[in-house]
Design a protein that fits this description.
Blueprint lengths: L3 H28 L4 H29 L3 H15 L8 H30 L6 H26 L4 H18 L16 H5 L2 H16 L1 H13 L4 H29 L1 H21 L4 H9 L1 H19 L5 H31 L1 H22 L8
Helix pairs in contact: 1-2, 1-5, 1-6, 1-9, 2-4, 2-14, 3-4, 3-6, 4-14, 5-10, 8-13, 8-14, 8-15, 9-14, 9-15, 10-11, 10-12, 10-13, 11-12, 11-13, 11-15, 13-14, 14-15
């Protein structure tokens, strides 16, 4: 029997931390006096560690045949190292602290994803029912922190995040390993052979571009809203609205994926993402349009992630499972997000917010073209 609640608790706390960092860490850094370029660089560090950390820890997990010890080590060290933000606020100190805690934090999720899929076995389409608790955790923090920062100031944020990291560590200790250690045996080819398959590298390129298009959103969306007169309650509400829409997709994915197929759903998510960024770029002063744009998070994250991670699980099997999840995490949420965030910081200073989000729409459009041509012919369902 799948330990639903013990698996879900990890996602709850992991994405609760993300719900505090993504919407508000840039706001916190601006309150400390950092420029847009410096904020973009510091935010990019969190994403950049995903390029290295998941691959190192994925290799270790696949070699050892154990995933939960790495998840627990990563979660515990993330909590301990994050405490460094309380000791100094200089640029290089914060850069080092963010690099260290995120190196371990980013090690945890890919291996936990592999552990979850091994628990699910043949019922992999049920993954989204567990993952939706991550969305709930994100909403809880995104909604609650905005008003708290309005009332108590940005200095409250690091304390809040530290408490959530402590909860993540406890949840990792409570999570059970999949039966058999979570690895499979048999002839699955070499990892090099897997990566040379056109569908595999096309998928990874799509994921890179998709997350690069999210760079301005993750680093500057709250600042963009502040600059256009939105308060903390409205900012938190808009972030939460996107994730609420995402939950609706997660609840329906076990029916959508077999019915429509992976490629159709992926293309729909990419096209709607491009539309979303163009709406944010052109209509930030019209709350009704901005609300509609935020509901498209159902496509730009919920639909996209559920399809992408199911394809990764299909393409990387047996002893390559941990590294497959690591490649997905490092190339999309790592390299893609780091490149998008860093570029957004530079572009923002020159062209402003609207132009930066318009450029994000172009990047999402490029991802659509790669998927349309590079993933033709993949089977509709596993």
């Amino acid at each position: 029997m799948v330990p639903y609640w013990r698996l879900s608790a990890f996602y709850l706390f992991f994405f609760a931390a993300l719900g505090a960092l993504l919407p508000y860490w840039g706001v916190y850094l601006r309150a400390l006096g950092y420029t847009p370029g410096e904020i973009g660089s510091l935010m990019a560090i969190i994403a950049a560690t995903k390029i290295v950390a998941p691959n190192i820890w994925g290799w270790v997990a696949d070699r050892r045949g154990e995933r939960l010890p790495i998840v627990r080590l990563g979660s515990g060290m993330a909590f301990v190292l994050f405490l460094g933000v309380f000791f100094a606020q200089g640029f290089w100190w914060l850069a080092a602290t963010m690099a260290l805690f995120s190196f371990f934090w980013n090690a945890a999720l890919p291996q936990f994803e592999a552990n979850t899929f091994n628990w699910l076995g043949a019922k992999r389409q049920r993954y989204s029912r567990i993952r939706l608790w991550g969305s709930i955790g994100f909403i809880a923090t995104a909604v609650s922190i905005g008003p708290l920062l309005d009332h108590y100031g940005e200095t409250l944020l690091p304390w809040f995040i530290a408490a959530v990291f402590l909860g993540l560590w406890v949840a990792s200790l409570a999570a059970p390993p999949a039966p058999g250690g979570g690895t499979a045996h048999g002839d699955h080819g070499s990892i090099g052979e897997v990566l040379r398959r056109p569908h595999v590298w096309s998928l990874l390129l799509v994921c890179f571009l998709m997350q690069a298009s999210h760079g301005p959103y993750y680093a500057f969306f709250s600042i963009y809203l502040q600059d256009h007169g939105y308060g903390g309650f409205s900012i938190g509400g808009l972030w939460a609205l996107g994730v609420i829409a995402e939950i609706g997709v997660f609840l329906a994915m076990h029916r959508l994926l077999p019915r429509h197929g992976a490629l159709t759903l992926l293309l729909a998510s990419l096209a709607l993402t491009a539309l979303r960024w163009l709406l944010v770029a052109g209509f930030v002063d019209q709350p009704s349009v901005l609300i509609a744009a935020q509901t498209l998070h159902a496509a730009s994250f919920g639909l996209y992630h559920a399809v992408a991670i199911s394809l990764v699980d299909r393409f990387f099997t047996g002893p390559h499972q941990g590294r497959g999840q690591a490649f997905y995490s490092s190339l999309s949420f790592g390299a893609g997000q780091a490149a998008g965030t860093f570029a957004a910081g530079l572009f923002w200073a020159v062209g402003g917010g609207a132009a930066t989000f318009a450029a994000a729409g172009v990047v999402a459009g490029a991802a659509f073209l790669v998927a349309a041509f590079g993933l033709r012919g993949i089977r509709a369902a596993p």
